């Protein structure tokens, strides 16, 4: 599954880093999300889903690999 | 025939504040959540808005950009569902007049909110906060040393919770060594709703002069701290710098201190949980988040929002201009979200409590608060294996229900 981060929406709360540090990091300057990997693997798919749910600004989403169709998304602020 | 009668407009409630149990929110909140999780709420100044009590709707409101932090015309900044509206209006009136609130981004909507928040957010990332660990450990140990030297019984609030929270804030901001008490004294004078207007204005000016001096020093000799960063920003006015520094200092002080003391009290009242935590220190991370959920100290709820347009939510319509208060305490006890919500379970697996709020205003300092609480509680328990209350449980003075934040006023402990 492909992970997408909307950096315009991101408020740098850091919940993704707390939830899945192997997938996400934060910019030292403004705290915004940085993707360490663009895709999840079998080992961290669950953590990625949790991070999407935990994101307070709805900046993260998961997309199916093949056609890019949106498959999972956090809440829509 | 009965089913066709129009439903009568429900009469508004006042925010329930009377607790019947030490650590539980007012019981009326639970029945509201069950029967009408979005209900009409009468604010102390008489206007009627909405009270949200379910986790689902709470999250929905706080993450919806159609709910604004800017008050509609005619309503004062800082509309609170409890407290004396005249006093609150006078207090915020003074803060607004003195321009203290200009960069307080809790009072702003995006994009202005986003700009200020991003300007400082780099100091609050998970990694950056982790770099403060050793300093916080030293702060906590120093305070514990002082307590041991004085000997029991001691008030945990004054001798531990407040000094730990204050010193952590000094470290984060980079308040010059030795200036801490002066800085804290001036800040609390500025944000004390009980002082008279003249003293308030005097404190404003003194604090502003002091901060201007500190900012000047930091510009010449920058360090790796928040004040140095803010001082060096060319795109900020002096007014904005002052506002940001004072806001960030005060926003992180009392909630952290209050939570540290109340969490200790709650653990002392839950011996099985306390024993479990003593036996397995690795529980501390989930324990702190569970204590945050269970205690939810912001008893007045999340900051009041105003609908910018008509918003349909949970089968009701909140009209443009109406105020909305989210009861974080009620949402954090929602059985649809949390199994056995009224039980303190340090190993609880459900995530997603709302103690730090949600959406674009979610607490910027949450990772610092977590770290302070984790280190503070861990080391307190390690240092004093026989930590106990030095007064009867019912004699611990609690903060009243009409205050914004719940907590202990004093916690006498022995060891």
Reconstruct the topology from this structure:
The complex is a heterodimer of chains A (77) and B (415).
Chain A: E1 2-5, H1 15-19, E2 24-26, E3 33-35, H2 45-54, E4 60-63, E5 70-73
Chain B: H1 28-35, E1 38-42, E2 48-52, H2 55-62, E3 67-68, H3 85-97, H4 112-121, H5 126-130, H6 133-150, E4 154-155, H7 156-173, H8 180-190, H9 197-220, H10 226-232, H11 238-268, H12 271-279, H13 284-295, E5 305-307, E6 311-313, E7 316-318, E8 323-326, H14 328-331, H15 366-383, E9 388-389, E10 412-414
Parallel strand pairs in B: 2-8
Antiparallel strand pairs in B: 1-2, 3-5, 4-10, 5-8, 6-7, 9-10
Helix pairs in contact in B: 6-7, 6-15, 7-11, 8-9, 9-10, 11-13, 11-15, 13-15
Can you offer a commentary on this structure?
The complex is a heterodimer of chains A (77) and B (415). Chain A is of the alpha+beta class and 77 residues long. Chain A contains two helices and five strands, in the order βαββαββ. In chain A, a hairpin with a 6-residue loop joins β4 and β5. Helices cover 47% and strands 8% of the residues of chain B. In chain B, β6 and β7 form a beta hairpin. At the A-B interface, α1 and α2 of A face α2, α4 and α5 of B.
State the gist of this model.
With 77 residues, chain A is α+β, with helices and mostly antiparallel strands. Chain A contains two helices and five strands. Chain B has 415 residues and is an alpha+beta fold.
């Amino acid at each position: 599954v492909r992970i997408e981060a909307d950096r315009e929406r991101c408020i740098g709360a850091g919940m993704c880093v707390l939830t899945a540090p192997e997938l996400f990091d934060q910019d030292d300057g403004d705290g915004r999300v940085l993707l360490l990997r663009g895709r999840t693997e079998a080992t961290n798919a669950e953590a990625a889903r949790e991070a999407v749910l935990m994101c307070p600004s709805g900046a993260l989403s998961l997309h199916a690999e093949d056609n890019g169709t949106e498959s999972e998304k956090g809440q829509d602020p | 025939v009965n089913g066709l009668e129009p439903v009568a407009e429900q009469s508004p409630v006042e925010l329930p504040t009377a607790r019947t149990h030490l650590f539980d929110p007012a019981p009326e909140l639970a029945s509201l959540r069950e029967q009408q999780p979005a209900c009409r709420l009468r604010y102390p100044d008489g206007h009627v808005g909405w009270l949200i009590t379910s986790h689902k709707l709470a999250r929905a409101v706080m993450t919806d950009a159609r709910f604004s932090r800017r008050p509609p015309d005619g309503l004062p900044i800082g509309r609170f569902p409890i407290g004396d509206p005249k006093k609150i209006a006078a207090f915020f009136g003074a803060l607004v007049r003195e321009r203290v609130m200009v960069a307080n981004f809790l009072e702003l909507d995006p994009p202005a909110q986003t700009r200020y928040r991003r300007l400082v957010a780099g100091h609050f990332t998970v990694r950056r906060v982790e770099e403060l660990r050793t300093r916080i450990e030293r702060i906590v140990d120093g305070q514990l040393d002082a307590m041991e030297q004085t000997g029991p019984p001691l008030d945990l609030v004054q001798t531990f919770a407040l000094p730990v929270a204050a010193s952590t804030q000094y470290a984060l901001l980079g308040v010059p060594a030795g200036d801490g008490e002066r800085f804290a004294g001036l800040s609390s004078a500025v944000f004390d709703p009980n002082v008279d207007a003249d003293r308030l204005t005097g404190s404003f000016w003194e604090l502003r002069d002091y901060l201007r001096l500190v900012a000047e020093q930091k510009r010449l000799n920058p360090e790796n701290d928040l004040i140095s960063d803010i001082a060096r920003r060319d795109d900020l006015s002096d007014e904005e710098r002052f506002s940001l520094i004072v806001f960030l200092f005060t926003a992180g002080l009392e909630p952290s201190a209050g939570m540290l003391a109340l969490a200790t009290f709650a653990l002392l009242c839950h011996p099985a949980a306390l024993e479990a935590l003593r036996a397995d220190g690795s529980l501390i991370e989930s324990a702190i988040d569970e204590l945050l959920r269970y205690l939810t100290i912001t008893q007045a709820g999340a900051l009041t929002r105003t609908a910018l347009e008509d918003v349909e939510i949970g089968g009701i319509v909140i009209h443009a201009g109406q105020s909305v208060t989210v009861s974080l305490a009620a949402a954090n006890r929602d059985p649809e979200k949390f199994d056995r919500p009224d039980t303190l379970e340090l190993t609880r697996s459900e995530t997603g409590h709302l103690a730090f709020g949600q959406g674009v205003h979610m607490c910027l300092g949450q990772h610092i608060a977590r770290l302070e609480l984790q280190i503070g509680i861990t080391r307190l328990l390690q240092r004093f294996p026989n930590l106990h209350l030095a007064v009867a449980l019912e004699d611990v003075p609690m903060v009243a229900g009409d205050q914004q934040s719940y907590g202990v006023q004093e916690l006498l402990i022995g060891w």
